[in-house]
Amino acid sequence: MSLTALTSTYRLRSLCRLQRIQGHMMSSHVEPDVLMEKVGRAGVITMNRPKVLNALNLNMIRQIYPQLKKWENDKETDIVIIKGAGGKAFCAGGDIRAVTEAGKVGDPLAQDFFREEYILNNAIGTCRKPYIALIDGITMGGGVGLSVHGRFRVATEKSLFAMPETAIGLFPDVGGGYFLPRLRGRLGLFLALTGFRLKGRDVQRAGVATHFVESKKIPDLEKELVDLKSPSAEDVTRVLDTYQTQSSLDSEKPFVLDKHMSDIDRLFGSGSVEGIMQNLKADGSEFAKKQAETLSKMSPTSLKITYKQLQAGASLSLQDVLVMEYRLSQACMRGGDFYEGVRAVLVDRDQNPTWNPSTLEEVSEQSVDQCFSSLGEKDLTF
């Protein structure tokens, strides 16, 4: 082969290789995890990881927080709207797998994620501008933290709410210790311990959402909110109330827990998790049996931490609750149940965790109290 032919073959190969690389770069053009745009006088945040149900990662937290603060202080921005892309989820929770991997090897992500997530939860709770979360889909764990502390939370028939953390050796964090004990009666404790799922209109009836609007009306609702001229919180309320009035879907169905509310208050009214279990077993009703069965699958340590968390949180400010929860998060990173729970539920999916300790009786008061102790200079500060 002549030198010219060799050279052109070489160049052709290089060109093909370059095209392959460029093609790969084009095909792996990464969509941003979160979109932030100004629409009229509204700041709109869209969680944009639909393939993983908009699971919240540290990168998203680090983009949302400064933008929220900027909009809060910007004279040209009147309201903030937060929603999820893809039509299935608002946000199905925090990116827990990444946190477990980090925790196992002592990577700082296991601290940074919780710290920065809780600081964002507090910023949402204290936001001076009307903050409207459109929870049109799955909203669990970290997704609840991005919505429930805001002034307005709009549920639809596609909403699915739960705080399922006791099943993975964690506890209902992101300010769960603040909003759960403030739901009526013992409902919050029931939801926290069992991870019970609320759907559609029931999310509003429980007090987790402020409004219920049919999913098909959400685009019109959003447009109307964006078009408001210098709205007050009352103006936003008026618009949401109007849309709620026009949404009659499922309005004739009673709240799913209606017939159980007095049972929940009675059975979950005990002074300890062991007491609750005894109440449930002694009751003998179908409902009580089902709850006892659910609780028997949860991490005993998580159940006891959660009970104490809600008991304490009932009389604390959101900020103080988040300081407490940060201590608890780091205790869970040091323990074993969190890693085992994530393995059983999210990684191997055998749904068969081996908790340690394996019974409520073996979880000492002292070990629970230790989870709540100060981390000194490593405590969460705002």
TrEMBL record:
It is found in: Mitochondrion. Pathway: Amino-acid degradation; L-valine degradation. Residues 43-372 form the Enoyl-CoA hydratase/isomerase domain. GO terms for biological process: L-valine catabolic process. GO terms for cellular component: mitochondrion. Pfam families: ECH_2. It comes from the Eukaryota. One of its GO terms (molecular function) is 3-hydroxyisobutyryl-CoA hydrolase activity. Keywords: Branched-chain amino acid catabolism, Hydrolase, Mitochondrion. The keyword Transferase does not apply. SUPFAM superfamilies: ClpP/crotonase. InterPro entries: ClpP/crotonase-like_dom_sf, ECH_dom, HIBYL-CoA-H. It catalyses: 3-hydroxy-2-methylpropanoyl-CoA + H2O = 3-hydroxy-2-methylpropanoate + CoA + H(+). Its EC number is 3.1.2.4. Hydrolyzes 3-hydroxyisobutyryl-CoA (HIBYL-CoA), a saline catabolite. Has high activity toward isobutyryl-CoA. Could be an isobutyryl-CoA dehydrogenase that functions in valine catabolism. Also hydrolyzes 3-hydroxypropanoyl-CoA. NCBIfam families: PRK05617.1. Belongs to the enoyl-CoA hydratase/isomerase family. This is 3-hydroxyisobutyryl-CoA hydrolase. It comes from Seriola lalandi dorsalis.
